[in-house]
Every structure is written in structure tokens, then in C-alpha cells.
Amino acid sequence: MMSDAISHTILLGIVIAFFITHDLNSPLLLIGAALMGLVTVFLVEFIQKVQKISEDSSIGLVFPLLFSIGVLLISRYAGDVHLDTDAVLLGELAFAPFDRLVVNNVDIGPKSLYVMACILSLNLGYIGLFYKELKLVTFDPILAGVLGISPAIVHYSLMTMVSVTAVGAFNAVGAILVVALMIGPPATAYFITEKLQHMILASVFFGILSAVTGYAASFWLDVSIAGSMATMTGLIFFTVIMTAPRKGIIAVIRRSCQQKYEFAGLALLIHLLTLEARKPGGGQGQADDLVNQLQWQASFFHRVLDRLVINQYAALQANEIRITAEGRSYVQQSKLYRQLSGYEV
């Protein structure tokens, strides 16, 4: 949410800096955007602390206000300048190679390539130098303060880098793709691993994958490049969220069903032990009677019973169900049985 807000509100910083310099190529635009990103973070946190409202609500107040002011200023005072809301939101990556960087009358390549390469170097250097501080402040800001690390300085320095990265990508890709690539790949990586270093590497991989597949899709379908990349970011995210081995929806549903049948099987075995305690030496239970006693659907009961028989926890002979030695050991080792061991039937 904060990245989304910053990537939009820096428009106001760009507009104000342009009104001061009247030059779209001035480095003050980058400085103005970065400062507006910090102003956004400060206002959100100020409202959150003073008014005691949630961060989402604070962002919902600050983000539309600053962004709409920027849009109004562009519409009213910069109508004849190559600075419009469509470029801000969507960008046009296909035209980025035509904005050339010329040094001493020598064309050395697309300007966006060098701008983003410099910002990439800054980000890599920042993470490399302050990785420990960033990790500590993110997961335990109290401990960081005790160790002499200022959470506020680390936080605002990170927000500065977010602002600089967002404004650097503004001209080429627009705010929508900036938000998509800032949020989508890390969110996708979170479903793959819980180790921070692996998560960072996975985020880079998913970001590159989204860019490559998005560009290929845009070329094939003849649509917006930035829009295709943002779409692929979402598709990759939903693919991973469905199929991730531990946290994916399919894995969670499968694990939930497995736990359901394991618990039902354990309950059935405990019920058989209860019947055995009531009638020592007798048959432990008829299948039809057990269905009525447990008030289960017959189909569900037989699926549970089949699992117990396959695992050799129970044996079925002439419609009579008996618990095996393996089943008795399995029940006695279970936490549920130990919790119920003091219950008198």
C-alpha cells in the first residue's frame, strides 16, 4: 500500500520541481519526487499516530489528496508540456529507446537504460551496505533501537530509495507497472520461501520472468507493453498462490482434507477403544451401528474406514470392525487420546 501511494504521489513532486526549473530533464525532478515520497510517508505516519487510525485509512487520505493535486496542476498549468496523466499511469515502454542520451554529440544509448542502471546500482549498494540494519528494523525494531540502530532513519532511507526508484521508472513504464513490480514479485516469492535472502533472489527472478513474458505477450497480442507486464505479474502470482507446495491454495486444501480424515480416523479408533472398554472380549463394532453412533454419512464413514484398513490401524471382518495392535499404538501416542485419557466413559 505504501509503495502504491509513493509511486503516485511523487507526481506532485515532479510537477512542483518542473514549475521551478521548467525543464523535464532537470535532476531536480528526481529530487522533488524523492522528497514528495518522504512527505507522503511522513503524513501517513503522522495521521496514523495523531488520529489513532489504521495505516490503510491514513494512506487512503493522503494518497488521493496529493495525487489529485498533481493531476490538477498538470491539467491546469502543463497542458502544452509532455507531462500528462496517461504517461504517468501507463507509460510507454515502446518509445523509451527513442529518448536517447547524447554526450558531446555522441549518442550512447537510451536514456532510461542509464537512469535505471544507476538506480539499480544504488539499490544494490544500499541493500548490500545496510542489509543487516534493514533486516533487523523490519522484523524487530525494538531490538534495533536497543542496539543503537535508528528505526526511523532506516525506514525513511528505504522510503527514499523507493521514491527514487519509482520516479526513475516513471517516464518509461508508468506508475501501474512500478506498483506491480514492487509488490507482485515479492508477494509471489513469499509463497515459495520464508528465508529473506532466498525471497530477495526469488523476487528478482519473478520480476524478470514477468518482464520477459509480458513483453512477449504484448508483441504477440499487439497491446501495451507495460500493461502486459503488469498482467503477467498478476498471472504469475495467482499461479504460484494456487500451486505453491506449502502455502498454495491447493496444498492447503489437500492438507486440510488430510487432517480432516486423520482426525476422523483417530476419533473412530478412540470410539472403538471405548466400546471395547464397555464390553471386554466382545466384538468392537458393527459398521452400520458405528455409522449411527457417530452420526456420520455412510460414504464419509467408509472413506475413513478404508484409510484405517490401508494403514493397518483397523481390520474389517464380516462387517465387524476391530482395532489392530498398530491402531492401538497409534491412538495411545496421539495427543488427543492423552488429553481424553482421564475421561471416564
From TrEMBL:
Location comes to: Cell membrane
Whether Transmembrane counts among this entry's keywords is yes
Q: Which InterPro entries match?
A: ABC_BtuC-like, ABC_TroCD
Q: Which UniProt keywords apply?
A: Cell membrane, Membrane, Transmembrane, Transmembrane helix, Transport
GO biological process terms held by the UniProt record:
response to zinc ion; transmembrane transport
Transmembrane intervals: 5-22, 28-47, 59-79, 113-131, 143-166, 172-192, 199-217, 223-245
One Pfam family from the UniProt entry? ABC-3
**Record keywords: Transferase included?**
no
Q: Which GO terms describe its cellular component?
A: ATP-binding cassette (ABC) transporter complex
The entry's family comment says: Belongs to the ABC-3 integral membrane protein family.
Q: Tell me the domain of life.
A: Bacteria
Annotated coiled-coil positions are: none
Q: Please report the name of this protein according to its UniProt entry.
A: Zinc transport system membrane protein TroD
> What broad class describes the main subcellular location of this protein?
membrane
What is its membrane topology?
Multi-pass membrane protein
